[in-house]
Amino acid sequence: MEAGVSNDRKGSPAAAAEEESVIMRKSTPPPFLVKTYKAVEDPATDDVISWNGDGTAFVVWQTAEFAKDVLPTLFKHCNFSSFVRQLNTYGFRKVATTRWEFCNNKFQKGEKEKLCEIRRRKAWTSNKQRVAEASEHHELDEDQRSSSSNSSSSEYNTLVDQNKRLKEENGALISELASMKNKCRELLDLVAKCGKKSSKEEEVDERPKLFGVRLEVEGERERKRKRGENNQEINETATFLLSQSCKMKVKEEKAIIRF
C-alpha cells in the first residue's frame, strides 16, 4: 500500500513540476558565473581582468580599478572581498601568490557551456578551507591598503607640484607688475614735462603790437597748428597710460587671487 502511495506521489503533477524545475536549474548556469565570465571575456577590460596565458584561469590585474569600475556594472556592490568569497563558494581556487589568479576546471576560455556544471557549495566542510579563505582576505586587505597608500602619495605629490608651479607663476606676475609700474612712472614724468613746456610756450606771446593790438606774424598759424598737435599727442599719451594702469590693476588682482 505504501509503495502505491509513493508511486502516486512520483506521478503527481507537483512532483513532475519540481523535477522539471531541478532540471532547468541544472541546465542554467548561475548568474554570478555568467556575469564573471562576461567580464573576463570583455576585451575592453583586459588591463583590469582577463584570462591567463593558456585560458585555464583568470587574473584580476588591478583590484582597485576592478572594484571601482567593473563590479558595479555586474553586481549591486563594489566590494572585492565579497567577490572573492563568492568565487570560493563556487569552488574557485587562488593559484598564484603574486597576483589574484583564480582557477576552476569548468571555468575556462572557450568553454562557456560548462558553467552550468559548476555548483554552489552549501557550507564549508574543512578547517583548511577556512584558513585558506582567511589568508586570502588578509592578503586582499594588505593589497588594498598598499593601493590606498600609493594613491594618497601620488595625490600629495601632484598637489606639491601644482603649488610650486603657482608660486613660480605668481613670482613672474609680480616681476611684470613692477616693470610696468616703472614704465608708467617714466611716462607720467614725460607727460608732465611736455605739459609744462607747452604752458610756457602759451604764456610767452612775442607777436608785435600796433596800437595795443597783437599782429599776426608769418608762421604764427603754423606754430598754433603744431602746438595743437602736441596737445593731442599729450592727450593720447595720457589715455594710453590710463589704459595701462587699468590693465596693471587687473593683473595685480589676478596674481593676488591665484596666490
Automatic annotation (TrEMBL):
It is found in: Nucleus. Residues 130-145 have a biased composition (Basic and acidic residues). One of its GO terms (molecular function) is RNA polymerase II cis-regulatory region sequence-specific DNA binding. The keyword Cytoplasm does not apply. Residues 71-95 form the HSF-type DNA-binding domain. The keyword Iron-sulfur does not apply. One of its GO terms (biological process) is regulation of transcription by RNA polymerase II. GO terms for cellular component: nucleus. Residues 1-22, 127-158 are annotated as: Disordered. Keywords: DNA-binding, Nucleus, Phosphoprotein, Stress response, Transcription, Transcription regulation. Homotrimer. PANTHER family: HEAT SHOCK TRANSCRIPTION FACTOR, HEAT STRESS TRANSCRIPTION FACTOR B-3. This is Heat stress transcription factor B-3-like. The lineage of its organism: Eukaryota, Viridiplantae, Streptophyta, Embryophyta, Tracheophyta.
